[in-house]
Amino acid sequence: MPASAVFILDLKGKPLISRDYRGDVEMSVIDKFLPLVMDNEEEGLMTPILIHEKVTFIYLKHRNIYLVATAIKNANVAVIFSFLHRIIEVFQEYFKEMEEESIRDNFVIIYELMDELMDYGYPQTTESKILKEYITQESHKLQITPSVPDAVTNAVSWRKQGIKYRKNEVFLDVIESVNLLVSANAQVLQSEIVGSVKMNVHLTGMPELRLGLNDKILFENTGRTRSKAVELEDVKFHQCVRLSRFENDRTISFVPPDGEFELMSYRLNTQVKPLIWVESVIERHSHSRVEYLIKAKGQFKRRSTANDVEILIPVPADADTPRHRCTAGTATYAPEKNALSWKIKSFPGGKEYVLRAHFGLPSVQSEEGEGRPPISVKFEIPYFTTSGIQVRYLKIIEKSGYQALPWVRYITQNGDYQLRTH
Question: What positions does the domain MHD occupy (predicted)?
């Protein structure tokens, strides 16, 4: 069952924008929404779905507004949530920020967008590149071109007809972020890899692309269990991917949007070896000074190099007179962050570097009961993936038979990467 209506409310529950799609729910029922939210908060319950009599409220809180969909009977909550998230993405494409002020400044264009995004409670045209062809903004004024693009009435609503390029190219980036938490005793407490496949497509016509990965399930289905394969979890695809084809034979087949888009994202909840290992010895001396010995080692293949490494070492808020030296890179005291920033432009695998630092402390020492913040690390390693995911092939099929060049890059970077200290 689809959504009945969609509301955008301020934090006091007052409607800024509302659109009734089906006429089967009283619009005044939205007055019950905020009291329900407040009742739940008082009881310590935070649920994104609320029910009042026969009406279900499905909502998201974003910055200083609520997005609320109402529905009755057996609503498809997953589809409605996905639609609310898509509204946020489309509005951000148009207005940069989605908050109360931008809603008030652009209510005319927002009503036009809401009419196109959903029809009779069902999501319709949700691709901002296509919407921008016929719903444009200029000084908060709406302009609509005389004709609706073919893409809106086409099965491939995310790509318009008649695209032409002199040079046909596809750029594909596999980007993995490593989330890691290491205890002060050098135990990995949490680790996961969050990956995405991003594309930039410059292709003529209506090409079909087929992407092959070293997918474990695919390899098992085809009897190639010895090959190095990766078991992907929580895979999410762009709407252009033919899901039925993927479910049947794990083929990623799609007609791509033009330009930049995220084809897929995935997660691997796996034990990750810390790529940049940081050891710290911190010594306080009679309430007068503190000394740091920091060792950083690249625990990845020697032929790879981490770029733009930054190791952020927390120091006491009352520290002064910094002195430091390091065997590579540069260290700078950042009092606004209460931290020492150690930057290494190029960090080859297998290398180890050392930083020594000394700070004075006032005679009256701040209490240490708060616990020390962890050391955090930022980095980017090109031509490398932690998971071992590989693009086996990228086929481009177009009726005119032109040749196209696919370019593939791999990048591993830090996500939430923290190492606790004693």
Answer: 167-420
Please give the average per-residue pLDDT across 59-80, as a whole number. Answer: 90
CA distance 172 to 175: 10
Same domain, 142 and 14: yes
**Same structural domain, 175 and 284:** no
Identify the CA nearest to 254 among candidates 199, 175, 176: 199
Can you give the pTM of this predicted structure? 0.68
253: β partners: 210
Final residue of a domain: which of 152, 186, 216? 152
Distance CA 39, CA 357 (A): 52
Looking at the fold, whether 207 and 283 belong to one and the same domain comes out as: no
Burial class (CB in 10 A: 0-12, 13-18, 19+), 133: middle
Token representation of residue 358: 């000394």
Average pLDDT over all residues of the chain: 87
Decide if pLDDT at 70 tops 70. Answer: yes
Domain shared by 11 and 143, yes or no: yes
Q: 146: pLDDT confidence band, cut at 50, 70 and 90?
A: very low
Using the predicted structure, report yes or no on whether residue 367 has a pLDDT greater than 50: no
314 contacts 375 by C-beta, under 8 angstroms: yes
222 part of a folded domain: yes
Query: What pLDDT score was predicted for residue 18?
Result: 93
Q: Contact at 8 Å (CB) between 419 and 378?
A: no
- The 10s digit of each residue's pLDDT in 26-52 is 999 999 999 999 888 877 777 899 998
